[in-house]
Design a protein that fits this description.
This protein is α+β, with helices and mostly antiparallel strands. The chain contains 10 helices and 8 strands. The protein is globular and about 65 Å long. The structure holds a DNA duplex.
Length: 276
Amino acid sequence: METIKSQVDKLVIELEQSRNLSSTIVHIDMDAFYAAVEMRDNPELKEKPIAVGSMNKDDMNMSAKFNEGEVSSSPVLFEDSTSPMDSNLQQSGLSVENSVVFGTSAEEAVKEIRFRIEQKTQLTASAGIAPNTMLAKMCSDRNKPNGQYRIAPERLAVLEFLKDLPIRKVPGIGKVTEKMLKALGIVTCSELYQQRALLSLLFSEISWRNFLDISLGLGSTHLEKTFSEIKTAEDQYSLCRELCRDLAQELQKEGLKGKTVTLKLKNVNFEVKTRA
DNA sequence: GCGGATCAC
DNA sequence: TATGGTGATCCGC
């Protein structure tokens, strides 16, 4: 085990040396989006419990589950926030069209962004500011709803944030992984780090490497770009045609078998995997 | 490469 | 905490 541990620690040193704190990533997340929209559009609902669900023709799904006598506390179940506004990652000092330069700190800029969102939509958002996307996402949760949180771009600030953070809060760690780790006595991110050697024996390479990244607060600074708004069906359709045409051309050029082709269109990268 | 498990929303 | 559905990704075979 000692030799295992020293091998893992060699990797830790490498990872530390390549730690990148130079980006400022902002994750903005709408608060209880579905429920908030309904309450905005029908203020009568503000007094009432709200459940989010769907109603298909032959399948009626209501995700409501109320305990008797619990009508006044307005439980919001399945607090999903799937929407165009959700999960918008932005990078400070961004060079996208429609971007605005704020002559101020990231925190003030993000306050301004959230303020404008609320002015425009009557909906609140929370935000996280951090050196990478994983941390930014977790930060946006910290002061939800209608709040924000920043991790300073310093190693110790990152580790301090993670110290007592339950691993369940980490994106990618769900119910099952939580249970497995709990069985090993691992609940917090610092415990995840302490058990790094053990984890390297019990889990696949990819898994324990991921655990190690998490426990060190390492993450990507790469951002996905989305399309700018495409309003009409005609424009959407014509963009679709353009995509297909370019893809076909690209495949022709590369040879059709089992390749991953990267298309750049409208400043958006597409990775297309083709069947072998 | 396929199917099942896991996860985010 | 006996609930959904969907689409993506991972993982083992």
